[in-house]
Amino acid sequence: MAVADETMLRARRNIERLIDLLPKFGWTFQHPIQGESGLAVWTPPSQEAQADIAQLETEMQGPVPISIGAWWRIVGGVDLTRKPGSGPPSVEYPDPLVILPVGAVMAELNEWAEDDELREMRPVFAAPLAPDAYHKEDVSGGAPYEMELPAPGADAMIMNMTRPLAFVAYLRHAFQWAGLPGYAEAFDERPSEISAIADRLEAL
């Protein structure tokens, strides 16, 4: 737990730096920096975050991974999506880092639990963490990035991504690409402007 907490403290500092650095890169955020939960660039953890995690574990009859629990307690939620047309034009789908706060996941769980037809189609709840790279650009795409719960371990895989990664590995990958991991699908090496930002972030 101590290792997970330190990892997410570094992730939180990286989010704060990206909020400052990305606009210098020409990036215009889709949402205000802070605001309504789930509708802001950064949603710091609420006072209810720990209670929400406990309720999620009760409802799912099992634990959430230590990694995502630490993220929800220490970072909260992040949404680095951009306004259409902003930022560098070299990548059509930069797949900016988005991780929903635990309150938004709880809302999805409640909807799933109350919908018999949905539960019949999807008997195992998968916590939505982010839209896919296409939906982040307001283009019809595929399934969201999800994590099956419960997951009794330190970490768990994120489903439906181009390259399957566990949660902490995904965060490392995203920060290595300045919070825009879609660039890794278009370039073998980081462009100079991406490196200029990523080099100022902390390693997890």
Write the layout of secondary structure elements.
Blueprint: H1 2-21, E1 42-43, H2 49-60, H3 66-74, E2 77-79, E3 98-99, H4 102-114, H5 116-121, E4 126-130, E5 145-148, E6 157-158, E7 165-166, H6 167-176, H7 183-186, H8 192-198
Antiparallel strand pairs: 1-2, 2-3, 4-5, 6-7
Helix pairs in contact: 1-3, 2-4
**Average predicted confidence as pLDDT:** 92
Q: Total number of helical segments? A: 8
Tell me the helix content: 25-40%
The percentage of residues in β strands lies in: 5-15%
Distance between the termini: 15 Å
Low-confidence parts: none
Radius of gyration, CA atoms, in whole angstroms: 16 Å
Using the alpha-carbon principal axes, give the shape: globular
**Helices and strands: which structural class?**
mainly alpha
- Strand order in space, largest sheet: 1-2-3
* Order of helical and strand elements: HEHHEEHHEEEEHHH
How can the largest sheet be summarized?
3 strands, antiparallel
Query: What's the number of extended β-strand segments?
Result: 7
- In the residues, how many domains can be counted? 1
